[in-house]
Amino acid sequence: MLCNGYDKVLELSHGDLAELNDARGSTVRVTKGTIWMTQEQDTQDVVLRAGDVWTVERQGLTLLEAQGDALVCIVGAPVEGVRLHASDTPLSTRLLNWFESAWNSGRKEVPYY
């Protein structure tokens, strides 16, 4: 399957991670492989296989991880915010780094007496 008419085409290798920021309303279509997807503030992860289509339901961070080689097509205004991370760093480390940076960016220093 081709991705004609889509704004962004991602060719992912096993373990590659793509970040979509504030992509509510964008459509994700998997044309090859399997993708694990999770959305910020959502406890339900989604697994998409070749031929599956999903519309991002929430603002905030949406993560896509390739479970093997995958081809993903994305359409929607917010797709400029897509960032890719190669799979050479384990997912657990990448998620931990992301959570730490998110936590630290929102923290204000409180004086200790």
Explained architecture:
With 113 residues, the protein is mainly β. It has one domain (8-105): Jelly Rolls (Sandwich). The protein is built from 1 helix and 9 strands, in the order βββββββββα. It has one helix at residues 91-106, and strands at 8-12, 17-21, 27-32, 34-39, 46-49, 53-55, 61-66, 70-75, 83-85. The strands form 2 sheets. A 5-stranded antiparallel β-sheet has the order 5-4-7-2-9, with no helix packed on it. Strand 4 and strand 5 form a beta hairpin. The mean pLDDT is 79.
Through-space gap between termini: 63 Å
Q: Write the H/E string, N to C.
A: EEEEEEEEEH
Q: What's the CATH architecture? A: Sandwich
Mean pLDDT: 79
Task: Give the helix level as a range of percent.
Answer: 10-25%
Oligomer: single chain
Q: What portion of residues belong to β-strands?
A: 35-45%
At the third CATH level, what is the topology name? Jelly Rolls
**Quick one: biggest sheet?**
5 strands, antiparallel
Poorly predicted regions: none
By CATH, the superfamily comes out as: Jelly Rolls
How many strand elements? 9
The CATH class label is Mainly Beta
Overall spatial form: globular
Total number of domains: 1
| Rg from alpha-carbon coordinates | 15 Å
Secondary structure tally, helices: 1
Structural class, from secondary structure content?
Answer: mainly beta
Q: Which strand order do you get reading across the main beta sheet?
A: 5-4-7-2-9
